[in-house]
Every structure is written in C-alpha cells, then in structure tokens.
Amino acid sequence: MRSPRPLRGPSPIRRPRPTSQRPRNTARSRPAARAERLHKVLARSGLGSRREMEAAIVSGRLRVNGARAALGLRVGPADHVALDGHPVFLRFEERAPRLLIYHKPAGELVTTRDPSGRPTVFDNLPRIRGGHWIAIGRLDFNTGGLLLFTDSGELANRLMHPSNEIEREYAVRVRGELSREQLRRLAQGVALDDGPARFDSISPGGGSGSNRWYQVVLREGRNREVRRMFESLGITVSRLMRVRFGPIRLPPHLRRGQWRELEPKEAAWLLEAAPGKTFRCSG
C-alpha cells in the first residue's frame, strides 16, 4: 500500500517576464518574409521610385548574389543585393513612410549635386540613415513654394505617376490684368511645343497696380509648364509659387528654406488618400 503524498503548499508567484526580453523562438513569432520583386523592395527601402529602380535594373546597375539583375526578379532577406557595386540594406516589412514639407526659395536647384556649386534643396534637409530623400516632383530654379520629399519609393511613385493626375496649385504673379479672352484660352487650352496644355481652374488672387495675382490648378508637371502657358499669350510671369501638391498645402508659418516633417500616421494616410482631400501640416 502506497503512502499518501504530502500536501503541497501554494505555488510561488511567478514574476512576469520583462517586456524587453525577446521571445525564445523568433522564427515562430514572426512569419518569414516572402520574396518580392526587386524594384518594389528597392523603392520601399528608400533608394528611389519604382520607375527609377526599374531603370537602374535595365541599365545593369543592380546585382543580386553576384549576378546581374533582371526585371521581374524576386528577392528575399537571404539575398545579397548591390547597387553600383555597393551593398544595399533592403526593407521587407511595411512601415510608415517619412515625408517632409519643404518651402523652397527661388534660386535653389532640385538636384543632389551641381557642377557650378549652386545651392540645392538637399543642402537644407536633415540626413537620413539607410536611405536618402526622394523629391516628389520638381520646381525650376526661379520657382519657389511647396516641395515634398519622402524616403518611400512607394509614396513617391503614387504621387508622381501621371495616371493619378495629382493636382498642382500655383500662385502666379503677372504684369497686367488678364482679359476675359485670355482667361478663357488658358482654361480651354493653349498650344505648347510638347503638346496642348490647360488649367483645370484659374481665378484672380488680388494685387494692385501693374502686379496681379492668379491662382491656377493643373494635373500634370511638365517642365516650366505654367510659365510657358502664360508666355504663349505674351504674358510675363514675374513670380511663381507652388502652394499645393495633391492633398498637401504649404503651411503659412513655414518660412523659405525651412522644412517640417509630417507625423508618421499622416504620411501613411497619403498612400490611401484620394486626390482632392486636403489637410495642413501639424506643428
């Protein structure tokens, strides 16, 4: 006959595991990243827009595991990717993109380097680790106003792709008041060297004397398009500022040469935002 088992006291209270401690088996807690198309991963990693990365692949600038990459190639976390001979860090997890609003002054170039040593918009931007800022659209040397930058190729592609027809709004100062006929022609369309162009809307914005302001909206961004449209009618543009790009307006408190970063949730919201929605930068 077995002797009765001794009674056990109450179990000791176990301390909860510190939240900073990692799980023992991380492979089970996170699903393995699936292989994705190379140009998509490069864009998400902040190396450029999808179109720019496709062009880099076609030109032979990308190598995967030592071999020249081809369009449509899929890569995973175990693959080694090099751009122009330099290894790159790839991000396979979706994250909130970063986005800057920059008030560009006239007299700055939208380029990373200028052989003549002229100032560029990138001179005033904060540095970013593991990537670089991508300009969303461009403004010519003599045009100021709103300019957007992001570290997300996905966001850059969405806002720059011609099929999305993102609205651009400008404040234009001209010499002299426009006639009704001139307003009609600008709204219905004028002929340019690279094809017809028209404003979606044009309205007076005030002014006195010889200087008059007009607010114009269009859905494309050809080189010097706004200036060339006025010049086609013999009208001189004395000042040009972009005040809105898609859903983003230039904050009135942001001075020339200053930048402001959007909150991560605001930047992520842009990926799903429909053209026409407008919100102001916080802060």
Supply the key terms.
283 residues, alpha+beta, Structural Genomics Hypothetical 15.5 Kd Protein In mrcA-pckA Intergenic Region, Chain A, Pseudouridine synthase
3D architecture notes:
- The protein contains 7 helices and 17 strands.
- With 283 residues, the chain is an alpha+beta fold.
- The protein has 3 domains: 53 residues, RNA-binding S4 domain (Structural Genomics Hypothetical 15.5 Kd Protein In mrcA-pckA Intergenic Region, Chain A), CATH 3.10.290; 88 residues, Pseudouridine synthase (2-Layer Sandwich), CATH 3.30.2350.10; 79 residues, 2-Layer Sandwich (Pseudouridine synthase), CATH 3.30.2350.
- β8 and β9 form a beta hairpin.
- α2 packs across α3.
- It is elongated.
Task: Summarize the SSE layout with pairings.
Elements: H1 26-29, E1 36-37, H2 38-44, H3 50-58, E2 62-64, E3 67-68, E4 74-75, E5 81-83, E6 86-87, E7 99-104, E8 134-136, E9 144-150, H4 153-160, E10 168-175, H5 180-188, E11 190-192, E12 195-197, E13 201-208, E14 211-218, H6 225-231, E15 237-245, E16 248-249, E17 259-261, H7 264-270
Parallel strand pairs: 9-15
Antiparallel strand pairs: 1-4, 2-3, 2-5, 5-6, 7-9, 7-17, 8-9, 10-14, 10-15, 11-12, 13-14, 15-16
